[in-house]
Write a structure and sequence with these properties.
This protein is α+β, with helices and mostly antiparallel strands and 136 residues long. The protein has 2 domains: 4-62, no CATH class; 69-132. Helices cover 35% and strands 26% of the residues. The protein is built from 3 helices and 6 strands; from the N terminus they run E-H-H-E-E-H-E-E-E. Strands 1, 2, 3, 4, 5 and 6 form a 6-stranded antiparallel sheet that branches. The longest helix has 17 residues, at 15-31. It comes from Streptomyces flavidovirens.
């Protein structure tokens, strides 16, 4: 993985990462009819609460922390579990690739893996991805 950082309780909480997580959480909240949180790059009670609420909905530990791993850019979403962050992120990418249905010769582009503790194994990750065709 190119990097591993965290957002939330006892996290690295880099402002850009915090905004990414806040946007990720707002996608989840909008899909579930929940009020959106402010995307300001700051970790406050609303962001911690949103992280814990997301973790509870996923059936995982509510430690108030989201881990980010890898980077690039995306469209459909995949999810996967693993005993390590790398395994869970790779499983999420494989699920995303299967859902994206890339044509032969296309390149799979992925966004950051958003990971949390829980699921059927130690970590669960979610990633968005898209297919990019080679330029002729």
């Amino acid at each position: 993985m190119s990097f591993v950082r965290s957002v939330g309780l006892n996290g690295d909480n880099q402002p850009g990462d915090v905004r990414d997580v806040q946007e990720f959480l707002n996608d989840f909240r909008a899909d579930n009819g929940l009020p959106l949180i402010v995307v300001d790059g700051l970790v406050g009670p609303a962001t911690i609460g949103a992280i814990k609420g997301f973790q509870a909905a996923q059936g995982g530990d509510q430690d108030g922390q989201i881990v980010l791993a890898e980077s690039s850019s995306g469209g459909v979403a995949g999810q996967g579990d693993g005993d390590t962050l790398k395994e869970a992120c790779e499983a999420a990418k494989a699920d995303c690739k299967a859902k994206a249905g890339c044509a032969q010769g296309d390149t799979l582009k992925t966004e950051k893996c958003f990971c949390w503790r829980g699921g059927t194994q130690v970590f669960t990750c979610q990633v968005k991805c898209s297919c990019q065709s080679p330029v002729a």
